[in-house]
Amino acid sequence: MDDVKIVGTLDVTQLVFYAFVLFFIALVFYLRREDRREGYPLEDEATGMVDTPGGPLSRAEPKTFLLPHGQGTSSPERWRRDPVDIPAKRAFGSNGAPYVPTGDPFADRLGPASWTERMHTPDLTADGRLRIVPLSSTDHVTVSPRDAQPVGMTMIGADGKEAGKVTDAWVDMSEHHIRYLEVATPGGQVLAPMAMAKVHGKRGVVVIDAIRADQFAGVPKIKQPGTITLNEEERIVAYFGGGYLYADPQRQEPLI
Q: Does pTM surpass 0.85?
């Protein structure tokens, strides 16, 4: 028995087949647009300007994420960087050549001292409390008596000179370990990453070989006492990270 014709020679079987083909094409477009929300359109690696605008497969609306604890929303498009003029030059004539600083690499966000623009709000615990706080502000977290107490010790830089005194330790309330050491320097209070510090309890000193003692004065400072934002964390860690290459000109030379 012949299938029932709907219009002319178009029957139900053909209609279902055409519907499936259209659905499949639409599905391919949808999936390709979804997996190209971030990172598209492509940008030039040197200038950050749009390199390839992209076609209909890369024009999905930017993702918007709901932030916890009433912090609003965030979108990757919000953090797209504007073109910047970095005071540096290529080591040799190639797009893959490393940059050589011509100014202050710590301030110019160059190489290992580079940082990304994170949110200007503090990191929070799962229940909405400040995640990183000074040890002196909490009464239920202490340094184990089996470990050396860094507070009160002398901070020593990469040049072996005194940078200041450790006045407090900032602890992670989610993971219960020290994240930063607060150091009183001639230029004011600064935070130093604990992950880059070596505590010598018998000598009563803390050594950070990332930067020289005089360079502690240039560490980015926090704006609000007792609170550190994600953006401030990013900049502080980048400053110390950049010291492993830029603190001493000799560190930029080959080992052999």
A: no
